[in-house]
Specification:
By secondary structure, the chain is of the alpha/beta class. Helices cover 41% and strands 19% of the residues. α5 links the parallel β2 and β3. The chain is globular. It binds S-adenosylmethionine. The site of S-adenosylmethionine has 25 residues, from α1 and α4.
Length: 273
């Protein structure tokens, strides 16, 4: 199962191609700043606006040690390091994305503020109580063993620390496939927000807040679908590079499923007692 997930997310030379896109948008390649990556580095519904909303609800303090589980291109990790002064470690199953996250961080001068390693959410390479907090964005949809996922998050967070997720959930049905996280139902493991809450309780967490972001997500995906309908805009978008040749179908399917609330986007904020 994990091999299929890695194959789904692996794109050769992704960082180089994303940097070329950023440079084609007029940024100086010799002096790239972290904000130049906004628009290409967030692999989740709602992009940077969603990252900012999610981060705003986390109990963050400068100097905190955080773990980003399934960090992708590292967009959220760099944002939390820059905006909140946290030290962020990202782990991801897909080595090509770990390499891309490192390259992008180095190119915007943040190589010493975030670090990225290849690892599975189901077997975190960290000791008990290593982090002040952990979070995960749009990863659970690829993970069948959510009990193991949350047990691992619980183990590595310190007592009193936080764990939060922002995921696509099932509300009233299934999406059409492909979607951005899966080509077919075999690698898509959607659960209801109630089931996620139950699993988080079972892992030992205290669930503090459940936030429905479906309306914001549906609006963002409808806007993306409209934007890429223009071939000129699609040529300047990162979606074809990140999602592959069938990016239009993936975006249309998630936009439709969020639009009629078959699926939802939820944040769940927890604390390790
Ligand atoms: C949709 S992307 C989201 C990336 C990033 N969190 C973001 O929001 O920009 C999903 C990521 O989860 C990673 N992933 C999926 N299953 C995983 C697992 N079992 N352990 C670690 N990472 C996983 C994938 O490799 C991919 O980078």
């Amino acid at each position: 199962m994990e091999e299929r997930v890695v194959a789904h997310y692996t794109r050769e030379d992704l960082a180089v191609r994303l940097l070329a896109l950023v440079e084609a948008q007029g940024r100086d390649p010799r002096r790239l700043r972290p904000e130049d990556l906004v628009g290409v580095e967030d692999m989740h519904v709602g992009g940077r606006a969603a990252t900012e909303r999610f981060a705003g609800a986390l109990p963050l303090q400068p100097g905190m040690e955080l773990l980003d589980i399934g960090s992708g291109l590292g967009g959220a990790a760099r944002f939390l390091a820059l905006a909140y002064g946290c030290r962020v470690t990202g782990i991801d199953l897909t080595t090509a994305l770990v390499a891309a996250a490192r390259t992008l961080s180095a190119r915007v001068g943040m190589g010493d503020r975030v670090r990225f390693e290849t690892a599975s959410a189901l077997d975190l390479p960290f000791a008990e109580a290593s982090f002040d907090g952990a979070y995960t964005i749009h990863v659970g949809m690829n993970v069948a063993a959510k009990d193991r996922f949350y047990a691992e998050a619980f183990r590595v967070v310190k007592p009193g620390g936080f764990f939060a997720l922002y995921d696509v959930v099932r509300l009233a049905g299934d999406p059409g496939y492909p979607v951005p996280w899966a080509e077919s139902p075999e690698t898509s493991h959607l659960a209801t927000p109630e089931r996620l809450e139950e699993l988080l309780h079972e892992a030992g967490f205290e669930v503090r807040e459940v936030v429905d972001r479906t309306a914001e997500g549906a609006a963002a995906m409808a806007e993306s679908a409209a934007r890429i309908a223009d071939p000129g805009a699609a040529a300047r978008a990162s979606a074809p590079l990140v999602m592959g040749a069938d990016y239009r179908a993936k975006i249309a399917n998630i936009a439709a499923a969020l639009g009629d609330r078959r699926l939802g986007c939820f944040e769940i904020h927890c604390r390790r007692p």
